[in-house]
Amino acid sequence: MLKKRLLLLLKPFDLRQTNAHSQITNPQMLHHLENRRKEHINTVKFCQNILQQKPVYWEPILRNNLSQPICNVDLVITVGGDGTLLQASHFMDDSVPVVGVNSDPTQIEEVEQFSNAFDANRSTGHLCAATVNNFQQVLDDILEGRKVPSKLSRISVHVKSQLLSTYALNDILIAHPCPATLSRFSFK
């Protein structure tokens, strides 16, 4: 039996890479964000440990380092949330299945605890099929053929009757290079 080739696509780890993080002064919020970062890192390590036990070839890559279409893999596993899966979808066509792992699901008790101080919502993970609680089972079901991918509709975009080769799942941006210029377009 041939080993399956997997791509493990990861949300970045370091919140300090963004300028927004340096502007946060609320100690509760900083602690909350650090806990989220740790939760994400732990989920990534957990998924990597599971993959090391499976008869598969896999390679990790940070989503920010994607620059070429994803091909020559049998499955993409995204670890992050819906944003990570959506970003992956821009680099994939329908021939590559993808499974999302929500690395940091929202904790209701935390949202209630901090509701007056800040928004403590974490990842919704609506598009994600797994968390750390069920990743191994979901992966086993996929690898052993007990689960098959759901087909999702993709958005095709034509500009001046020319089909664009982008792979949009649920979002496209229509904008003029100069934001102050009037844009004209039609939808069908």
Automatic annotation (TrEMBL):
GO MF, one example: NAD+ kinase activity
SUPFAM superfamilies in alphabetical order: NAD kinase/diacylglycerol kinase-like
Pfam families: NAD_kinase
Biological process annotations from GO: NADP+ biosynthetic process
Annotated family: Belongs to the NAD kinase family.
PANTHER family tied to this protein: NAD KINASE (PTHR20275), NADH KINASE (PTHR20275:SF28)
Name listed for the protein in its UniProt record: NADH kinase
Record organism: Lithocarpus litseifolius
